[in-house]
Amino acid sequence: MVKIENLAFAYKKGFPLFQDFNCNIKAGERCSIIGPSGCGKTTLLYLLAGLRTPSSGSVSVSNDTTGNHKIQIGLILQDYGLLPWATAFQNVALGLKIKGGEQKATAETVYRWMKELGIDSVATHYPAELSGGQRQRVAIARTLVLHPALLLMDEPFASLDTLTREDLLDLTLSLWHKQASTMVLVTHNIEEAVYWGSQILVLGKAPNKKCMLINNAGSGIPDYRESQQFRSRCRELREQIENHARESLIGARI
Description:
Rossmann fold; 6-stranded mixed β-sheet; 3-stranded antiparallel β-sheet; 7 helices
């Protein structure tokens, strides 16, 4: 689970993004994080990944409620982060190679995941030879070969066309059903957040002091996008984001 206690964070000489912020995400959930630009979505993801350190308070990630068991964390970024001089296979194998995995076992694992994600046919291609969707699948495969119990994604589909984005959203849902890992997705797209997240964390105008975590029954079902429930939830979420932003603004003035 993810446990955030009394979190405070600000960049040097910057306005605080979080103050006395508390929030828990249960193990095995799919959590969408959404909010206006500059509210701290990506920063919160980096805090979960351990790439940023809280000014005060704590962020702990574990596979149970005790907080005593460290887990493997995977991070997928919008810009893919692929090595341009390495083939798709070499990019996927990068993490395993760094960990010193046995060559044959590494190759078997890499090819298995590339086949699972439908990119085994481009294993010898370089990133410049791949489409945006294929590059993101390579980035996903590179993370999944390490079997992360917590998968963090920072707007990974934002630069892709609508059909490719929806296809990759469905892919991550399929992977979640197979692995039952905890997944967190930062997005600026309300429809994406509602379709994908079993929970939705709404952040408002910084500093964030209140955890607004919405349970989202129905998410992840293939025909959910076409349902009245989906459209209603999108409208409700839009209103809640606007209200939360207004409340944060009022609180900042007091």
